[in-house]
Write a structure and sequence with these properties.
The structure holds two protein chains of two kinds. By secondary structure, chain A is mostly beta strands. Chain A has helices at about 1-25, 30; strands spanning about 45, 50-55, 60-65, 65-70, 75-85, 95-105, 110-120, 125-135, 140-150, 155-160, 170-180. Chain A is globular. Chain B has one helix at about 10-25, and strands spanning about 1-5, 40-50, 55-65, 70-80, 85-95, 95-105, 110-125, 125-135, 140-145, 150, 155-160, 160-165, 170-180, 185-195, 205-215, 220-230, 235, 240-245. Classes of the chains: A mainly beta, B mainly beta. The interface between A and B is medium-sized, with 24 and 21 residues. Strand 11 (about 170-180) of chain A pairs antiparallel with strand 2 (about 40-50) of chain B. Chain A: Keywords: Cell inner membrane, Cell membrane, Membrane, Transmembrane, Transmembrane helix. Chain A: InterPro entries: LipoPS_assembly_LptC-rel, LPS_export_LptC, LptC.
């Protein structure tokens, strides 16, 4: 009986020692040094991968990127050189590119930055320095000098909210629409 | 027909000439926008539905097409039907002519304007007013369908309705036409008054139906009075009477 207790105590000591080594690391004292910046928590990284959201078997959107990183809990996902496709029920789609994007895996909201360009199936093009996809109902929100071109109509403004078809559009701040003038 | 040559009505002739010529100049509000001239809409906020083509602009709205500019508090414009509706202190400006009203609707790519709610069309010192003004830019036809009034520095003409046909250089006031010029001591009434500016050198004004003109106490009445503006002569038809008051 004493022998069994001894074995259990040894296992606990070994596990505790290993756990301490893993958490503190070999330079545990260095991490506590205020002169050394804290290292971010290790992220999971995917290369050449895609993230897809589906609902009732229908694909809502698909995001791919040069690199995809996720926080350990998987709630926040970072994408670099994003290429996204948003699918509509009628079979049409909207393609979007951005330098950087952050996906909230819980809310499915997406924030994008850097040379954003979205193109709808009918050729409508939306460009913005920054944009997001979220809210209820889900809308694209472009900020920082946004332009939307549809046929012979050019829409600009400080902020533009639009659906995933780039069809219903609201422009706020220095809103401007130039339309017509196309020669048949 | 009675021809009364060299009758001393220069003041009346001059006044009517100025009055009716100004009617034409008033209507030169805006050169008709070319069919393919782009329309620019600027505002604090704009909502646009590409499916319906409907655009709603709010706050400091400014619509520009060619040299014509319209402003108001709020506007709707349909890019498919090319119809617009501006409300709230609407002002349309083109060159030196200005149209103001509570509301203005535009049709056919802004080639037809309908203004109402204290509509005023101003060019220089002349003002055409009425509760409603309609203007076809392609044909340069203007209509004030009720309570029409033209004001100038030296006189005013009111009528139930005033139509102006710019290319023909013709304008007609219909129903209770009343011309008043305090500067020229002239007061004239008729059921209808039409100015014919063409052919050149033969312009005239026809006062029809119970025409009556008074200047300096002299009264000319008749069923129809024709003022030959260039000849400074007047013709009268029907039962005519001239009453001269000694000065």
């Amino acid at each position: 009986m004493k022998k069994n207790y001894l074995i259990i105590i040894c296992v606990i000591v070994i596990l505790a020692g290993g756990l301490y080594y893993l958490l503190a690391g070999p330079d545990g004292d260095q991490a506590a040094d205020p002169q050394t910046p804290a290292q971010p928590a290790a992220n999971l990284t995917f290369a050449g991968s895609s993230i897809i959201e589906e609902q009732d078997g229908r694909r809502l959107w698909e995001l791919s990127a040069d690199t995809i990183e996720a926080e350990p809990d998987g709630k926040i996902v970072y994408l670099h050189n994003l290429k996204g496709v948003f699918y509509q029920e009628n079979g049409e789609k909207m393609e979007i590119i951005a330098k950087r994007a952050v996906l909230d895996a819980k809310t499915r909201d997406i924030s994008m930055e850097g040379d954003i360009r979205a193109t709808a199936s009918d050729g409508a093009v939306f460009t913005a320095p920054a944009a997001s996809w979220g809210g209820e109902p889900k809308l694209f929100t472009g900020t920082g000098g946004v332009t939307l071109i549809r046929g012979d109509t050019v829409i600009t403004g400080d902020k533009i909210l639009t659906d995933d078809k780039l069809e219903k559009i609201k422009v706020l701040g220095k809103a401007r629409v130039l339309t017509g003038g196309k020669t048949e | 027909m009675i021809n009364i040559k060299r009758i001393s009505w220069p003041a009346a002739v001059a006044m009517l000439l100025a009055l009716l010529v100004s009617t034409g100049s008033l209507m030169a509000l805006a050169a008709a926008p070319a069919a393919n001239t782009p329309v620019e809409i600027a505002a604090e906020s704009i909502e646009y539905d590409a499916a319906s083509g409907l655009m709603t602009a709010t706050g400091g709205v400014r619509i520009t097409q060619g040299q014509a500019v319209m402003t108001g508090d709020r506007a709707q414009y349909n890019t498919k039907s090319q119809e617009g509706h501006l409300t709230g202190g609407v002002q349309a400006v083109s060159q030196d002519a200005t149209l103001t009203a509570a509301e203005v609707k535009t049709y056919n790519n802004n080639t037809r304007l309908v203004a109402w709610g204290g509509a005023v069309l101003t060019k220089g010192e002349q003002r055409l007013t009425g509760p409603r003004i309609e203007y076809i830019t392609t044909t340069q036809y203007a209509l004030v369908p009720e309570n029409a009034k033209i004001e100038m520095p030296d006189g005013t003409m009111t009528a139930n309705k005033i139509e102006a046909f710019i290319p023909e250089n013709r304008a007609t006031g219909t129903g209770s036409v009343h011309i008043v010029s305090p500067a020229r001591k002239l007061d004239a009434i008729a059921d209808t008054a039409t100015y014919y500016g063409e052919p050149q050198g033969q312009s005239k004004v026809v006062l029809s139906g119970n025409a009556r003109a008074v200047q300096d106490g002299n009264i000319l009445t008749g069923e129809t009075l024709t003022l030959h503006l260039d000849e400074k002569a007047m013709g009268a038809q029907g039962r005519t009477k001239l009453v001269i008051t000694p000065q």
